């Protein structure tokens, strides 16, 4: 049997592969670069803000009122109009009733994820948008607690 020979090409490929396992390209702002299909963000998501809202309803809340609140919240996708562009500015909105088996809901029964193209759009939604303000005011009698968390994907 012949002795295996050292091949510099294989050694170089092995080195590059090992370096690739431990190197995550960042764009300088804490965001993982979007060069490959497996990256944490894509160029279309860059700068997008994800707004997560978890709702706990009062125990005395009428189930029909909760359903109506859900429908009104989902309608914000088209009712929230940007003040200067004069068109809907919510990139995406989805939500529904919890069905997690983990038991870590801490009272929340419904969750919603709203995506905005920028922090400015999110800030307008939270602080100023009349449609959002009307929704918030309209649920005060039935909501016990709302937990909100906002993030930009890949920014740690």
Outline the secondary-structure elements:
Elements lengths: L7 H15 L26 E9 L5 H17 L10 E8 L12 E7 L2 H9 L2 H9 L4 E9 L5
Antiparallel strand pairs: 1-3, 1-4, 2-3
Helix pairs in contact: 2-4
Pfam families: Dabb (PF07876)
Protein name: Stress-response A/B barrel domain-containing protein
InterPro entries: Dabb, Dimeric_a/b-barrel, HS1/DABB1-like
Descriptive notes:
This protein is α+β, with helices and mostly antiparallel strands. It has a domain at 49-151: Alpha-Beta Plaits (2-Layer Sandwich), CATH 3.30.70. Helices cover 32% and strands 21% of the residues. The protein is built from four helices and four strands; from the N terminus they run H-E-H-E-E-H-H-E. The protein has helices at residues 8-22, 63-79, 119-127, 130-138; strands spanning 49-57, 90-97, 110-116, 143-151. It has a four-stranded antiparallel beta sheet. The longest helix has 17 residues, at 63-79. Residues 9-41 have low confidence and may be disordered. It comes from Gaeumannomyces tritici (strain R3-111a-1) (Wheat and barley take-all root rot fungus). Homodimer. This is Stress-response A/B barrel domain-containing protein. Residues 49-151 form the Stress-response A/B barrel domain.
**Rg from alpha-carbon coordinates:** 23 Å
Tell me how many strands there are: 4
Low-confidence stretches: 9-41
Q: What would you call the structural class?
A: alpha+beta
Beta fraction of the residues? 15-25%
Tell me the major beta sheet.
4 strands, antiparallel
Q: What's the CATH topology name of one domain?
A: Alpha-Beta Plaits
Calculate the terminal CA-CA distance, rounded to whole Å.
54 Å
**Mean pLDDT metric:** 82
* Main sheet strand line-up: 2-3-1-4
Order of helices and strands: HEHEEHHE
